[in-house]
Amino acid sequence: MNRTARAAGDLILAGPMGAGKTSIGQLVAGWLDRDFVDLDALIVARESKSIPELFADGEEVFRRAEREALRWWLERGADAPAELLALGGGTLEDAELAESLGRRGTIVHLDAPADALAARLDEPGRTVRPLLSGASDPAVRLSELRQARAAGYARAAAFSVATEGVSVTHAGVRLLRRLYDATDGPWRTRSERLVPADASVTIGRGAMPELPTSRAVLLIDETLPCVQREWVDAYLGASARGGVVRLTRAGGEPAKSPESLLGAWRELLEAGIDAATPLWVVGGGSLSDLGGLVAHTFKRGLPLTVIPTTLLAQLDAALGGKNAVNLDGVKNVIGTIRLPERVHLDALYLLTLPDAELRAGLSEAVKSALVGDPELLTQMQRSIEGIRARRLTALETVTRRAARVKQRIVTEDLYDVGERWQLNFGHTFGHALEAVAATQGEPMAHGDAVAVGMLFAVRLSARLRALEDSSLESRLRALLTELGLPTAPPPPLLADKERLMRALSHDKKRRTGTNTFMLIRKAGRLIPVEVGTTAVEQVVESFR
Question: What fold, for 192-353?
Fold first, then answer.
């Protein structure tokens, strides 16, 4: 069959029983925002008989019903919405139907060893499959069926995906990674520039920046799911003919220590890395910070490419050019400002993010909307269901628009002397909450702290008569709630008002003994204002 890139039409999953066609198919269909169709369910609906009942009349009776149902599905008009179809294990043995399916969409073969299939089919709640009924050893029978049908799968499918040993989510991501693979994926597309006039930041599923050298350094988050790491390794392994020097760190603040930085320098020195060797960073914000500092300082500068794997990093750390490590418990005290040569934003990384990390990024997206894209605020309010379901189009819309706000402001004020202060909206109080929570032994997630910080800033704006949009607080509170973000500080933090005020006194943008808050008149219009202690304390009290 033709395996060159094609438009992303129908997706058709084939494979033996137990390979995950239904569970993986339903999940992937949700991500792609298309209907999921199970061929067996379609047969049952058309025939008003269960699959075992049809088989009881003879396998040929079932196969005839299967062919009729499939032909009915294939007769949908060319303009019908794309769907995801899960076939029966033996459907592709009909060569004519297999050819028709191949013309209609992309066929993918899901597979696992026979013993793994047998174990899944033996799980509680599973119905007995007619073709296994009476088999003394289901694994042996499954092995026979797999061998008999192997040629049909190989002939019809664009590629095969192994589903053994990974979760349904990770198998689904592995499937999409192959579909959108930049080299030979059937659905591969070109990445697009985030801003047309600037080639440094691109966005696109599965695409990767080109590697303009025969050797590379890879700094990668070792906690990144294997289905993401294996794809990065495969790309660099195939592209970097001179080899890849691999540095690993666990994502999180411990990666941003002087010891971690010194260790990276030593690893590069021992590997004989020269100033022309590009450094690729694949990970979240902490690795973006560390990798940026490594790239800026080693041999006076290595070419830097950042592939941010969290939504927060895609909207913030990877775009800002601020690179830093922590020292003696003080965050980001040793650092530089230097933009990467290239940044690529890929929504497929967001599919494996823990919920808490996705919420952190969504909090940052809300901030970007309030700072510079009021229409995005409305878009997020309308797309709550899609965002929650991690539909790729919904996530990409949020990422694209929020990242543009950050990139525009950073381009105008890279060194943080004016316009860039807008990006601190919600962070002044949010950082204080994080600091106090840490001292209490109950860390507060950054996204949660910023969410509360934004509401604090809106209330402070209203108290100081700066707020012009009286509906903004209620709209913001409703959106944060829908996104699963908090709308008030945890009670233990509120109870420690003295420590909160002390934390505010250490804010890095504090001048002449007074905190500067970014206040908001309406979405898209912010102003910096020096605010005295009394007004701040009054707003803190309003959350009780």
Answer: Rossmann fold (3.40.50)
Domain with residues 407-542, CATH architecture? Up-down Bundle (1.20)
Quick one: the chain helix, strand, coil %, rounded to 5? 50, 15, 30
DSSP H/E element including 258: helix 258-270
Q: pLDDT tens string for the chain (544 positions)?
A: 333 445 578 999 999 999 999 999 999 999 999 999 999 999 999 999 999 899 989 889 999 999 999 999 999 887 899 999 999 999 999 999 999 999 999 999 999 999 999 998 888 767 768 788 777 888 898 999 999 999 999 999 999 999 999 999 999 999 999 999 988 999 998 899 999 989 999 999 998 888 767 889 999 999 999 999 999 998 888 887 778 999 999 999 899 999 999 999 999 999 999 999 999 999 999 999 999 999 999 999 999 999 999 999 999 999 999 999 998 877 788 999 999 999 999 999 999 999 999 999 999 999 999 999 999 999 999 999 999 999 999 999 999 999 999 999 999 999 988 889 999 999 999 999 998 998 888 889 999 999 999 999 999 999 999 999 999 999 999 999 999 999 999 999 988 888 998 888 876 665 556 788 999 999 999 999 999 899 999 999 999 8
Q: Which amino acid is at 533?
A: T
With contact defined as beta carbons under 8 Å apart, do 387 and 398 qualify? yes
Whether 315 and 368 have beta carbons less than 8 Å apart is answered as yes
Spatial CB neighbours of 494, under 8 Å, sequence gap ≥ 6: 488, 500, 540, 543, 544
Check if the beta carbon of residue 440 is closer than 8 Å to that of residue 496: yes
Bridge partners of 304, per DSSP, are 279
Distance CA 290, CA 308 (A): 13
Give the span between the Cα atoms of 132 and 141, in whole angstroms.
Answer: 7
- Residue 296: both structure tokens together: 């800026």
CATH fold for domain 10-179: Rossmann fold (3.40.50)
CATH 1.20.1090.10 boundaries in the chain: 407-542
Q: What one-letter code names the amino acid at 160?
A: S
CA dist 277 → 202, 220, 344 (Å) = 21, 16, 19
Tokens of 9: 């039409």
CATH 3.40.50.1970, the chain: domain bounds: 192-353
Collapse the DSSP code of 151 into the 3-class scheme (helix H, G, I; strand E, B; otherwise coil) and give the result: helix
Closest-CA residue to 73 (of 109, 48, 115, 45) = 45
Interacting residues of 390 by C-beta distance below 8 A, sequence separation 6+ = 30, 31, 350, 351, 358
Across the strands, what pairs with 330?
327
* Sign of the CA dihedral with 333 first, then 335, 336, and 339 last: negative
Q: What are the residues whose beta carbons fall under 8 Å from the beta carbon of 369, sequence distance 6 or more?
A: 376, 377, 380, 401, 402, 405, 523
Say if strands 515-522 and 525-531 run parallel, antiparallel, or are unpaired.
Answer: antiparallel
| pTM: predicted TM-score of the whole model, two decimal places | 0.93
